[in-house]
C-alpha cells in the first residue's frame, strides 16, 4: 500500500484523487495539506507540512507555487518523493525543485495524463520523419471558457517535445493576424480555442504536400490527470534521487 500525503487535497484535482484512491486498492491517502477546510475527508488535513504526524511514502502536489519551498524542505528532510503537478512555477521555483531532486526523487510533468504522454512519444517520432519531408507542424488546443492561460501548458509541452528532437530550430507562432507573409519552414503554429466546458482537446497536425496526418487527444474528465498522478506515485517507489517525468512512467 502506497501511503500518500496530498497537497491541495480540497481542490478539484485533490478531491478527484481522493475519490479514486478509495477504490484503487494499492494506494491510501494518510494526510492532506490545504489552507481550505471546505470538505470533510477521511484523513486529517493540515495547513502546514510542519504539523503532519503521519508517515507517508509519497507526496502528490496539485496545488499552487505558494508554499513550494515548505513542501520541498519537508520532502528532503524526510526523504519522501514528490509528484509535482503544480503549474506556473517560476525560474526560482524550478531551481528549488532541481536542488531538491539531488536528494529525493521528484516527478514533474505539465500533464499527468497517460494518453497525452503516449501522444508525446508518437509525435516525437513523427516529427523526426515528417520534418525531413517538408511537412508543416501546427497545434490546435481547445479548453473551457474559464481557463485563464493561452496557449495551454500541454500545447507548449507538445511543441517543446517536438522541437527538442528537431534540434530546437523551430519558432512558435501564436498569431498570424499582423503578418502578411508566407508561413516559414521552421515554424510550429499554436492556436487556442476557448468555449463552453471543454476539459481539454489537443491536436497536432502534420501537413504535407497532398497529405495530412493528425494526432489528437481528447480529455473527457479531469479523472485522467488524477489517474496519472496515482500511477506516478506507484512508479516512484524505490527510485533514487533525480528528476523524472511521465515519459519515464510509460516506457
* CA radius of gyration: 20 Å
Globular, elongated, flat, extended or rod-shaped: what is the shape?
elongated
Major pleated sheet? 7 strands, parallel
How much helix, percentage-wise, in residues? 25-40%
Uncertain regions spanning at least 5 consecutive residues:
none
Q: Count of helices? A: 7
Report what the structure shows.
This protein has helices at 12-24, 68-78, 91-100, 114-132, 153-165, 223-235, 246-249, and strands spanning 2-7, 27-33, 45-46, 58-61, 82-84, 105-108, 136-143, 171-173, 187-194, 200-208, 211-219, 242-244. The strands form two sheets. Strands 3-2-1-4-5-6-12 form a seven-stranded parallel β-sheet, sandwiched between helices. Helices cover 33% and strands 26% of the residues. Helix 1 (12-24) crosses helix 6, helix 2 (68-78) packs parallel to helix 3 (91-100) and helix 4 (114-132) crosses helix 5. The chain starts with a strand and ends with a helix. The protein is elongated. The chain is α/β, with parallel strands linked by helices. The protein has seven helices and twelve strands. The longest helix is centred in the middle third of the chain and has 19 residues, at 114-132.
Amino acid at each position: 500500500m502506497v501511503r500518500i500525503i496530498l497537497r491541495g487535497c480540497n481542490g478539484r484535482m485533490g478531491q478527484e484523487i481522493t475519490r479514486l484512491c478509495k477504490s484503487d486498492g494499492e494506494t491510501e491517502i494518510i494526510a492532506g495539506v490545504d489552507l481550505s477546510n471546505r470538505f470533510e475527508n477521511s484523513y486529517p488535513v493540515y495547513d502546514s507540512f510542519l504539523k503532519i504526524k503521519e508517515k507517508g511514502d509519497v507526496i502528490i502536489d496539485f496545488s499552487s507555487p505558494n508554499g513550494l519551498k515548505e513542501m520541498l524542505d519537508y520532502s528532503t528532510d524526510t526523504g519522501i518523493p514528490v509528484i509535482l503537478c503544480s503549474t506556473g512555477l517560476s525560474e526560482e521555483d524550478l531551481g528549488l525543485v532541481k536542488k531538491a531532486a539531488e536528494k529525493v526523487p521528484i516527478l514533474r510533468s505539465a500533464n499527468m495524463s497517460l494518453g497525452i504522454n503516449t501522444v508525446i512519444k508518437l509525435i516525437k517520432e513523427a516529427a523526426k520523419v515528417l520534418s525531413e519531408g517538408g511537412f508543416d507542424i501546427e497545434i490546435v488546443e481547445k479548453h473551457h471558457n474559464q481557463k485563464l492561460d493561452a496557449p495551454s501548458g500541454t500545447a507548449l509541452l507538445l511543441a517543446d517535445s517536438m522541437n527538442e528532437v528537431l534540434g530546437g530550430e523551430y519558432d512558435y507562432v501564436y498569431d498570424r493576424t499582423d503578418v502578411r507573409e508566407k508561413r516559414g519552414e521552421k515554424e510550429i503554429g499554436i492556436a487556442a480555442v476557448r468555449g463552453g466546458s471543454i476539459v481539454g482537446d489537443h491536436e497536432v497536425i502534420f501537413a504535407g504536400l497532398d497529405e495530412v496526418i493528425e494526432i489528437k487527444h481528447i480529455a473527457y474528465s479531469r479523472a485522467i490527470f488524477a489517474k496519472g498522478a496515482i500511477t506516478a506515485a506507484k512508479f516512484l517507489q524505490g527510485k533514487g534521487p533525480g528528476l523524472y517525468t511521465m515519459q519515464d512512467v510509460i516506457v
